[in-house]
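Exercise 7b. Backbone tokens:
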């Protein structure tokens, strides 16, 4: 390849790329030991890096072809071949602008090729996040916008979008724009998309959205500044007011009585996380619904309901007896708890 420049032979270049991309899979069983296979993968990596040089064609086009050919390896089950493909792809962040442009578009291509089954989809999400982490911040935010739009598309895209949102908020820096002045609070877009999916027509998507939202509430409530923003977003910024009523309450009431067990269980998990965030200031109707869930036919549901209710009881009684805080929970929730217990 030092002597023959392939920019004049596009078909040959494409065939070479496809051949090199297939070798890690086809040679996996042929190599006698791990050392031989690792040497072969290093050789494949050297050839692919050589291919990306300008003398073999426009780098952006060549890089797009290379990434397209490596896509099946990236989305395959965990193996040395997958590790090789991901390692090569994520190493392209320091290449020329043309290669970077192809790398920025690669997560969207992976989204379109992601399998629908749970385990392969989870691997696809992991692979997508590996690539997103190595691109520039502005490109990460652009991808977040793309994922938010996905949550309004077809069912498979909505489900994948919900999974990606959880990983984006937990993996990328400063989702609420609090650390750097002028930073975009892209995490709010993600939270809004999750809340909408909590009322999705698909039970599986409702359950995943509720579960993901519960995990994010638990994560964001750990910080003082992030918890304030979270309360404002959820409509609970006036927790000490007797007239507290947020849009979350109505949604929680419906989801706690959902016809799908997975949705009810995920809703109770979200209630538990919100209870910790709000210090026990949970809507009394939601509280009564939690009590009814303690008699659910499913054992797992009864356990989840008891755990959620125990969290409310603990926080309210601690607040009432140890701190003497006369707040919204004292006048509305406390009598209900006394009656229920």
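Sequence design result:
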């Amino acid at each position: 390849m030092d002597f023959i420049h392939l920019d004049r032979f596009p078909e040959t270049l494409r065939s070479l790329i496809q051949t090199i991309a297939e070798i890690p899979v086809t040679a996996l069983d042929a190599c006698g030991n791990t050392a031989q296979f690792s040497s072969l993968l290093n050789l494949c990596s050297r050839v692919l890096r050589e291919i990306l040089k300008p003398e073999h064609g426009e780098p952006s086009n060549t890089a797009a072809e290379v990434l397209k050919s490596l896509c099946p390896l990236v989305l395959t089950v965990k193996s040395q071949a997958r590790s090789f493909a991901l390692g090569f792809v994520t190493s392209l962040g320091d290449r020329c602008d043309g290669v970077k442009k192809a790398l920025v578009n690669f997560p969207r291509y992976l989204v379109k090729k992601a399998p629908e089954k749970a385990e392969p989809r989870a691997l696809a999400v992991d692979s997508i996040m590996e690539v997103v982490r190595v691109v520039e911040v502005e490109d990460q935010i652009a991808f977040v916008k793309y994922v938010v739009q996905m949550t309004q598309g077809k069912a498979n895209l909505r489900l994948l979008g919900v999974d990606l949102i959880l990983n984006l908020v937990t993996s990328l820096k400063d989702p609420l724009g609090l650390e750097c002045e002028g930073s975009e609070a892209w995490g709010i877009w993600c939270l809004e998309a999750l809340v909408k999916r909590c009322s999705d027509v698909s039970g599986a998507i409702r359950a995943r959205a509720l579960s993901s939202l519960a995990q994010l509430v638990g994560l964001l409530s750990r910080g003082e500044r992030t918890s304030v923003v979270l309360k404002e977003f959820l409509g609970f910024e006036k927790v000490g007011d007797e007239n507290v009523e947020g849009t979350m309450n109505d949604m929680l009431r419906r989801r706690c009585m959902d016809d799908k067990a997975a949705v009810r269980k995920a809703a109770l998990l979200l209630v538990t996380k919100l209870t910790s965030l709000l210090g026990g200031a949970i809507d009394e109707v939601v509280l009564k619904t939690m009590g009814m869930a303690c008699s659910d036919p499913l054992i797992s549901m009864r356990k989840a309901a008891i755990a959620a209710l125990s969290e409310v009881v603990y926080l309210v009684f601690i607040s009432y007896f140890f701190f003497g805080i006369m707040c919204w929970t004292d006048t509305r929730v406390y009598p209900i708890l006394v009656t229920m217990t």
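Instructor comment: Residues 58 and 89 are 18 Å apart (CA to CA). Residues 238-246, 325-331 have pLDDT under 50 and may be disordered.
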